[in-house]
């Protein structure tokens, strides 16, 4: 009967490669926590490095609301077919850059007055037509000029069209005309006008000077 071989001496386990060092902040990260709601929606809370993220998802998994808490402040994202924001008193928006984009129509309705102040330039482009309607319209350029260009006709229709004139509107009667002249201290009118008679209009080609 042969002798059994001597058992081998115990050996140390093979050395294992060093595990990669965790990224900064990874030791603080934890698996996302999901809180189901009775409606089927769910709330997901997760940590992202030095920030946190809170998301609300629909029952089918679509993202509805996302809130990211960062060192620079919270970042809010909303997605949905319709969004409404209502304030009983004041709604203020303040930012460096404001972008509003509507794929179709847009409407702004103001019950009081509207005031716009732009420190730079204003460019308005309309693909079809533009219209301004008001009880009174004033256009002023200072110190620059006003330029109007059209590829077609330019129509100016008014009760009176005055150019380079700062006089008051045309008086409706000779009595009103003489009263304005008296208040302005202007020269006395010819006897025909003083008597209330209308002078005959002068022909456009009549260049004769009035009698001295």
Can you walk me through this structure?
- Helices cover 7% and strands 15% of the residues.
- It has 212 residues and is mainly beta.
- The model is unreliable at 188-212 (pLDDT under 50).
Assign a percent range to the helix content: under 10%
Q: How big is the Rg?
A: 42 Å
Task: Give the terminus-to-terminus CA distance.
Answer: 165 Å
How many separate helices?
2
List the helices and strands and how they pair.
Blueprint: E1 33-36, E2 42-48, E3 51-57, E4 63-70, E5 73-78, H1 174-184, H2 191-194
Antiparallel strand pairs: 1-2, 2-3, 3-4, 4-5
What attributes characterize this protein structure?
212 residues, mainly beta, 5-stranded antiparallel sheet, 2 helices, 15% strand, disordered C terminus
Q: Outline of this structure?
A:
By secondary structure, the chain is mostly beta strands.
């Amino acid at each position: 009967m042969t002798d059994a071989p001597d058992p081998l001496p115990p050996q140390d386990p093979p050395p294992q490669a060093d595990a990669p060092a965790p990224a900064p902040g990874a030791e603080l990260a934890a698996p996302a926590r999901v809180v189901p709601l009775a409606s089927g929606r769910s709330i997901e809370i997760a940590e992202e490095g030095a920030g946190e993220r809170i998301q609300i998802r629909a029952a089918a998994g679509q993202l509805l609301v996302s809130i990211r808490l960062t060192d620079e402040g919270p970042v809010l994202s909303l997605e949905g077919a319709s969004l409404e924001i209502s304030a009983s008193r004041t709604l203020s928006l303040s930012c460096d850059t404001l972008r509003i984009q509507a794929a179709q129509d847009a409407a702004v309705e103001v019950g009081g007055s509207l005031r716009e102040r732009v420190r730079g330039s204003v460019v308005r482009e309309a693909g079809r037509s533009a219209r301004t309607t008001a009880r009174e319209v004033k256009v002023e350029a200072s110190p620059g000029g006003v330029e109007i260009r059209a590829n077609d006709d330019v129509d100016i229709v008014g009760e009176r069209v005055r150019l380079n004139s700062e006089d008051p509107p045309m008086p409706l009667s000779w009595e009103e005309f003489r009263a304005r002249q008296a208040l302005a201290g202007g020269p006395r009118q010819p006897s025909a006008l003083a008597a209330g008679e209308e002078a005959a209009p002068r022909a456009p080609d009549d260049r004769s000077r009035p009698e001295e």
